Amino acid sequence: MAFASKSPWVIHYDGSSCNGCDIEVLATLCPGFDGERFGVINTGNPKHADIFLVTGSINEQNIEVVRQIYDQMVEPKVVVACGICACTGGIFHDCYNVLGGVDKAIPVDVYAPGCAVRPEALIDAIVKGIAVLDEKSAALEKKKKEGVA
Amino acid sequence: MTLLYTLIGCIVFAIVAPLVGCLIAGVDRIISARMQGRVGPPLLQPYYDVRKLLAKENVSVNSVENTYIVCALVFTIVAGGIFFSGGNLLMCVFVITLASMFFIIAAYSARSPYAEVGANRETLQVMSYEPMVLFMAVGFYLGAQTFDINGLFTLDVPIIANTWLIFIGLLFVLTIKLRKSPFDLSMSHHAHQEIVRGVTTEMSGPTLARVEIMHWCENVLFLGWVGMFFVWGNPLSILLALAVIAVVYFLEIWIDNNFARMKWQFMLKSAWIVALVAGGVNIAFLVFL
């Protein structure tokens, strides 16, 4: 049985977001929407997190930061691109320093579009992410067993 | 015979304390959420968290970190076993301090700057609460004429009658020991007010799960310390002790939700002043009057 789905701890990174999506990410954890109902905890530590929420597009400066946070996270892990900028680059897509969405840097599992992304959409995205997390932890479990045998 | 009781106590504590501690942590999170106007997680959320952490990949920076954490967990259980089997309170205090030492060394062993900040702060916390805890042990001896917890059941009046000032001092340092705001300097349950994650920055997956279980056991032990002040010859007094523990823990949750984190200078000064005034005056009265 997968236990990852019952306690998705998230880490939030602001790429080059206008802060609209960041405010919505934090609103998701506030009393109005209360992400903790589903066990969601906002951690500041990539090593403790299961779900990586990225807001804003990827640019020349933050691509290494995003990669490093992703690398520090412990398997199984899921990436959610929050907001249209994180999905595709959004209105900033043709800026000289913008490379595009989060998938230019790391593999993205769930895309949550919106400008700004609504907390309802975020909760939906996290729940979708949880399903992916379950799949990945089952795969990890299988790999562990095969490794032992 | 005492050794056998302690051994049985340790085994029982190792099974019961994580269960009780897990439920306490779940209730804590629900009450905290309600105080903040939220619904909060399910009661068993702390259990789900630990199960998830145990299933995660093991990526310790070095293998010795996990060894220290296992030692910390084992000594926490031994301290609990000594206390709840009616053993020596002074020994229990020393063993639980040894457990916190292992925890600090585990954080230092990762050689991470953030874990080191957390470890430094944890050391300051130990420095802050330790005088009051030792005064508590001395006050216990003067009240009960023995260091054995068993001795409480032969008393005619609970030790709170003579040591209520020490009890107030213990309540003050209990906020540090239970890792509650405003004194949750080294490791907060509210991630947003943290330098990365304090003392547990480099601990992840199964190691973090062991830290969490250790924290549950610690909480049960410290709440036991609160309860022991209200126990005497009458067996019904245990019910009174449990009621006091419930009230005290609710008070701690209330403090946790209403105060911002203090600086370490304030914690150290206030904890020592409280220890000297509450502990010193109370012990002076017991010795000289």
Explained architecture:
- The complex is a heterodimer of chains A (149) and B (289).
- By secondary structure, chain A is of the alpha/beta class.
- Chain A has one domain: 3-Layer(aba) Sandwich (Rossmann fold), CATH 3.40.50.12280.
- Chain A has helices spanning 20-29, 63-72, 84-88, 119-148; strands spanning 9-14, 41-42, 51-55, 58-59, 78-82, 98-100, 110-112.
- In chain A, the strands form two sheets. In chain A, strands 2-1-3-5-7 form a five-stranded parallel sheet.
- In chain A, helix 1 links the parallel strand 1 and strand 2 (41-42).
- In chain A, helix 1 (20-29) crosses helix 4 (119-148).
- Chain A is globular and about 50 Å long.
- The two termini of chain A are 20 Å apart.
- Chain B has one domain.
CATH class bucket of chain A: Alpha Beta
- DSSP strand (E) fraction of chain B? under 5%
Mass-distribution shape of chain A: globular
Largest sheet of chain A: 5 strands, parallel
Rg over alpha carbons of chain B? 19 Å
Order of helices and strands of chain B: HHHHHHHHH
CATH fold topology of chain A: Rossmann fold
Please give the count of helices of chain B.
9
**How many angstroms does the end-to-end distance of chain A come to?**
20 Å
Q: How many E strands of chain A?
A: 7
Overall mean confidence score, pLDDT of chain A: 87
What would the keywords be for this entry?
heterodimer; A: about 150 residues; Rossmann fold; two-stranded antiparallel sheet; about 15% strand; B: 9 helices
Topology:
The complex is a heterodimer of chains A (149) and B (289).
Chain A: E1 9-14, H1 20-29, E2 41-42, E3 51-55, E4 58-59, H2 63-72, E5 78-82, H3 84-88, E6 98-100, E7 110-112, H4 119-148
Helix pairs in contact in A: 1-4
Chain B: H1 2-35, H2 45-55, H3 63-84, H4 89-109, H5 113-144, H6 160-177, H7 205-228, H8 237-258, H9 264-288
